[in-house]
């Protein structure tokens, strides 16, 4: 028993937690000094808050129809005006943040999982798997991403799930490459060799040594993939692969385009587009800053 | 010196990749729910006898490997099926659209390539200056907006302020004579081109700038500077010529992204190319057209990449010696 009455096991857990907290605080101190990263993070916090609080912030139900106020410019009762169906665009844009962020995060998680699995396998298990998997990755890199996503989304069924799957199944290539090169460099470290000679199996080494070293890079990459996924979500929905009953920024823009309102109703087009732009900017800035901190290769540029 | 092993490897890779695309295209559209005929006839009730006859007529009663062989044979001879929507052969729809997309895309790519080189050189040479910072900021903002939205904004401006045509390639029943027709085409191209160029230039700027900055740190640059070579000679003869190589690879790598941009631009400005064809096939759930367009676009991009790979050793002799 140690002096505070903690068992050795507890003490080990305690010091691990303390070390972890210290590394988080240390990371935050580095991140905080990055101005671009902080701007990006602020944008993200703002939009996540909007998405969570949408029901409280929105003055109306996004689907509520004001039959006598079709395609009206902004006014005090409708801050962003109304669309051709007489719906309040301010409420629609607020609610639209939910779909964009959901698709962005979900697709990014799928892409990060596939990318990490393929990258680690290619990096760790020698020449032949690497050659094969990189060929496979190159194949996906060459095919025009948007066209492939269109085909996948239309086959998988329209709506959020189809769009998420289509983006996630195509968007993993960058992560796979970064993870592979990171795995290759981690593999050369002496502690891996030591672990292997003391009899550790591949799965054990991957889980305890390789994965923790690869995760920061995956995380930075995943944040960047969210930015791309949000752009692709808007594009796929705009092209008619979304669920027309779901309010998303891309869907608002599609209705604006199809109804022909784009040449007259600027208030219909600007808010959803600017929202997409800001969110993507937020994720990009955050992702680049994380990459700069986690990935020394980038830091020197 | 021509390295035969290099070419052989590349050609093997090409054949394998095209085979993968063909197989992918075959199986993907077979996991669609339902039978092609229920889609073709839009659920209009067919008797089971009629359905059976159709299945036999189109070979759908045959085993899947047989269908696959038939599909491969048809594709190779250019038979891509018929459109559900217009009943026209997909191959002729695609061929027509491909030409129009190539016109738009090649002009846009050439413009963004050179504009990108120019801005990239300025940004690298005057690193950290106002020009560099504002160029980077503009590129980041342009990257963050969806291309179709940029197109909508430009279309809005085009209609209200510039009085440019915003739909299609030509004015219907508009001009006679070669020159007026050409000017008419150019006027239709202005806004789609601007949209694509604004969307594509950022990548070229980034790569040109970082390639130049990389070259600046090379030993031979320090040697050249120590010899007292003028800045202009240093930048062009030593820096630029080495930095241009990554740009050449980027052109073909960028093709996929460019096509994504073209799809959106064509949709907004009703430019009758592959993008508009794909957009209309999405709205009508016209799967044969979608499948054909996917196949042709993908193979075109693969071939373009192949050509760049073949030309690369000519540009960079170091590749050959590997």
Walk me through the structure.
The complex is a heterodimer of chains A (301) and B (322). Helices cover 76% and strands 0% of the residues of chain A. Chain A is an all-alpha fold and 301 residues long. The mean pLDDT of chain A is 84. Chain B has helices at 4-28, 36-40, 48-57, 64-76, 90-125, 130-144, 147-162, 178-216, 219-226, 231-253, 255-269, 274-283, 287-315, 317-320. Chain B is 77% helix and 0% strand. Chain B has 14 helices and no strands. The chains are: A mainly alpha (301), B mainly alpha (322). The interface between A and B is large, with 40 and 50 residues.
What attributes does this structure have?
heterodimer, A: 301 residues, mainly alpha, 12 helices, B: 322 residues, MetI-like fold, 14 helices, globular
Which runs of chain B of at least 5 residues are low in confidence (pLDDT < 50)? none
Most extensive chain interface and residues per partner: A-B, 40 and 50 residues
**What number of domains of chain B?**
1
Assess the beta-strand content of chain B as a share of residues: under 5%
Average pLDDT number of chain A: 84
The number of helical runs of chain B is: 14
In one word, what is the shape of chain B? globular
